[in-house]
Amino acid sequence: MDAHALARRICVLGALRGAQRVLLHAGDEYALLSGVCDALAADGTFPAAWIGLASAGSAALATVAVGGADALELLADERVQGDSVDAPGRDTRREGGALRGGDALPDSLLARWRAASGGDGAVAAFPLKIGERTIGCLSLVAADASALDGPERGLLDEFAVDVGYSLGRLRDGPRAMTGQPSVDRTVVDDPLTGLPNRAAMRRRITGAISSATNSRGLAILSVHVGHFDEISDTLGRDAGDRLMSEVAVRVAAVARSGQDALARIGEDELVVLLQDADTTHASDVARRVIEALYRPVDVSGMQVDARGTVGIALYPDHGDDAEELMRRAKVAMYRAGADGYYALYSGLHDDERRRRLALVDDLRRAIDADELLLYCQPKVDLRTGRCCGAEALMRWKHARHGMISPTVFVELAETTGLITPLTQWVLEAAFRARQRWHEARFDQPLAVNVSARDLHDPRLVDRVRALMSAWGIREGWMQFELTESALMIEPATVIDTLRRLRNLGIELMVDDYGTGYSSLRYLQQMPVSSIKIDQSFVRMMVDDAESGAIVHSTVELCHALHLRAVAEGVEEVAVYDALAGIGCDAVQGYYVGRPLPVADFPQWAKTSRWAPAHASVPTS
What is the pTM of this model? Predict the structure, then answer.
């Protein structure tokens, strides 16, 4: 299997792994269907996923669950007719009283996806069965057409069987397996909150549009609950449900009155319909929703952050049907996550999204063509004042747009399924660079950032072992930096992976400490040697007493656990001196040195004021 095929298989398996967790834990049909779509679309391997089920007496399928912003956009142009969307089931026909799922969805949907993404892509449908009766289909868009072929197709076929079995298990217990459908209950209410679900809200918005006059507008608010996935993964599914229930109560208290309506349309998303509303009124309600969610929620005796973001779309300014308005409110909601608390939809948001989709295709080509650059940023030991290694950093010089911020393209990779090939590129480049340092008689550790998805990739340890063998890497030469939040996702599995990496001779460090939900019990069990204190605290420690207290206490915690404390984001001498005064072990930041090409680091280290005592760099 070539590298591309392996990366594709890992991406598909990763998406199915998250979706299988939903099948195991979902307590009701709505949670199962919406959770499956959200999980499949979570990392970009399948940018769009939706499930259509057959309503009684109709050959058309009602769309009852959608995952991924692309799914909303794709379905938006296939106009909603009443309660059913014909597009997802147009190739699904009745045969002998049963539905039969076809292999591919309509050309119009595929053409729309290709035009939006700038790529090839594919769209396919997988029949869902209860017993011998096919009751609907799971539809997927894949950016890489081969993700829906060959062995991957077999995995998806098997998963569709599992979805059907789980549906049957949830519907009336053993009697469900006789194949008697009860589809229509899934389009009424959300069992957790008692609120209408997506299909019901779509009907409500459609009715409001039909009765609206030129003098009366409508507003759709999309409310996203912050940290829902992180809290569910860390504290358990029940904790996430309690958080969502409390959020629904708070939003209802603000937004639900008279003819207005509230619905839960996704695992962590609510929608508010405001009738007779303009921009001013919608913005006021959005502001009050944000204020209501600002207060922490008590979950399992822990105060967790419930803050969210709100996106606003208006009728008729931003759309003239329910799906289009909900999609555009969601687009604005994502923009609010970047800009602040709430945002009003703008056509510029869709323009930005198209630009991002084009960048995804360019990034894929840059990885395949080895066009990325490897830089590194120095670290200094505070006790000796000498260089003690560097952190590897990726850079991308785009042919048209120039240097692309790593924050932008790493986030793109994480949300589009490219993070695994991107990690493979940086690992290969870093291991190769470290060997060349050694050949130049310069031996300092080089650190590489590893994502949460990488930690759960079953092939990670084998790939690292192969790279160490290929480049003759010795124990202590390489370090892996792992974000705090990544370590808290299925920590038992992560601990096993970390121990295997440590046994290979990889030194492990916790990165961005202070920004996640750490468990000291798990932290104590993890075979890490250092903790990097997040720069948001370090930069403010001299001027802000609370930030200073956090940094000081973290340094003490590290030493109590026999770990090294490393501070990042050190940009001025006052912060450097303060960290030295409280016993911090090492620092990194612009005051020490700015990022530079990894090949130039040995010479820089030799000539800088932080030169290691035993640095030896050839001059020829």
Answer: 0.52
